[in-house]
Amino acid sequence: MPRSLLTLPLTLALAASAVGAQDVPAPAPQDQAAPPAGQQPAAPAAAGQEGLVVDVEGGISAPMPIAIPAMPTSAVVQTPAGTTDVVGQQLSQIIANDLRNSGLFTPVPPAQLRTVSFPEVTAPAFDYWNGTGAQALVQGYVRANGDGTLTVGCYLYDVLAKSELARQGFVVSPSDWRRAAHKCADTIYTKLTGEGPYFDSRVTYVSETGPKGRRIKRLAIMDQDGANHRFLTNGQSIVLTPRFAPNQQSIVYMSYVDKRPAIYVYDIGSGRQRLVVQNAATTFAPRFSPDGRWILFSMAQAGNTDIYRVSSQGGTPQRLTNAPGIDTGGSYSPDGSKIVFESDRSGGQQIYVMNADGSNQQRISFGGGRYATPVWSPRGDLIAFTKLGGAFRIGIMNPSGGGEKLLTNSWQDEGPSWSPNGRVITFQRSTQGSSGKADVWMVDLTGVNERRIPTPLDGSDPAWGPLRP
Amino acid sequence: MNKIKTTLVVATMALAIAGCAKKRPAVLPPAPVDQNAGVDPNAGANTTNPDGAITPGSDADFRRSVTSNTVHFGLDQYDIDPEARAILDNQAQWLARYPNVRITIEGHCDERGTREYNLALGDRRANAAKNYLAARGVSADRMNVISYGKERPIALGSDDASYAQNRRAVTVVLS
Hints:
Oligomer: heterodimer
Distance between the termini of chain A: 7 Å
CATH superfamily of the domain at 59-173 in chain B: OmpA-like domain
Number of helices of chain A: 4
Strand content of chain B: 5-15%
Radius of gyration of chain A: 24 Å
CATH superfamily of the largest domain in chain A: TolB, C-terminal domain
Order of helices and strands of chain B: HEHEHEHE
Mean pLDDT of chain B: 81
Number of strands of chain A: 31
Mean pLDDT of chain A: 89
CATH architecture of the domain at 59-173 in chain B: 2-Layer Sandwich
């Protein structure tokens, strides 16, 4: 759960006195119709009756025009993130890209963005912005603090109503400066759509290169917009199917190091890895429980594969399934009480749900065809899956198996993973032939706004991490 | 909601930098050299002696002696069909001549399956071949199995003929 600014009253008071009136004059209302922002009722965006609201169901067909000018700085200062004026320009571009990539917003083109002075940040030129067609306006500022950190202020305005809708401030270390932009974009997005945030998050995946018969695969992580990309392993061993720990400090994945298919936990900060299950049998398909206490995984013994769980600290695995077929995959419901998994016990791959202790295993997919790789949405309302047929397609269904909807239609899309707010799905798309390759893609849960995520090389097995605190 | 002051009040929210405050590893984590992952069955290492002749009991000797080191499977199947039986019978005879030789049986799948299921299916195929060889007298403790799922295709096209070549179990003699 992101830490709310409302729980930091002391910091709030200190910041008020530190920033204060000496930096910026009190905003002069543009006209009588603009009451001081503090007296504006905070109408939740989801209420819909009044105020600026983005309809996430229909909104993609009519994205909201939004102006995001460069963020000025009170003083141009060199920082490890660059000079503060350049950082302010880049912040606005990151915010614009996040919002554009959601499919719900159309940023005003750069040529129409006026230069906003520092005082204008809290006293917008609403008439100008109205002339650009923008309905919403995002303004902000950057300041280098004396201790090496940066402060980024973020303000959202309703252009037509000439009112402030939201404001947030962020203090970040220079290496995290992009996160301030994502946090600001999340503030805008959540206020206007009523949905949960997701821009300040990362994706782990397998970077791929080399010939099709001998791919070089490396574990990698990146911000959800493709920035801050980092390789975590060196490609000497095949690596597969990474997943973030809920606390984001580690990634669990499967590796063929020493020619032993086994699962490892990789500590992101230290780079150290530890073997999860001390066993000669093939273990794979690992994922964490939502509380981080368990690692779910598959183990193949004597030609039969079942699902097990083991304490994330290591120990004796507990068997959860025991059917004479292939049971694999597995994804916890967000409350940790249930697990959705795939099994071919009925003859072909289908989706099953069981309690987290392995009891009460029930098939839920009956739509005709085969179903694989089920993943439970962090919102709990949907299960995404790969549907196998002439094509492999990403789909969603509700947790009882109904309401099936297919979101993509390419030759081979597989392995969906949910954004933290349950609105966007990342997946792997492969192309045919000896020169075929795989890439990381995303699609909205309504099936629109399908797009490829830029990665240094090719990519597979993407897994979206939690929202960063 | 708390009343917001109209002067420039900025509520600060310190961002936790869990895991990111630590120094990045200076080098990528070392992986022990994975010598034979998805080994090309035709590239036997250490199987020739210094004057170029093939060492008896080596993988190169195995490959030139048996009908084939590879058996194939039908779509989504893992049963040993008559053609596979004949090939494995022949492998078993060679293995009986070299009772101290150990083998790894690799199970493979075509690309028209999902990642994790294919790892399990490859394991099924490798074990099917192993069980058959065991029934033909090859001691189980001489045999390892490993599944490569769809990670190491031998035929790279996206057509049924390529897929049929990729659905296979490969017997590799360890040097």
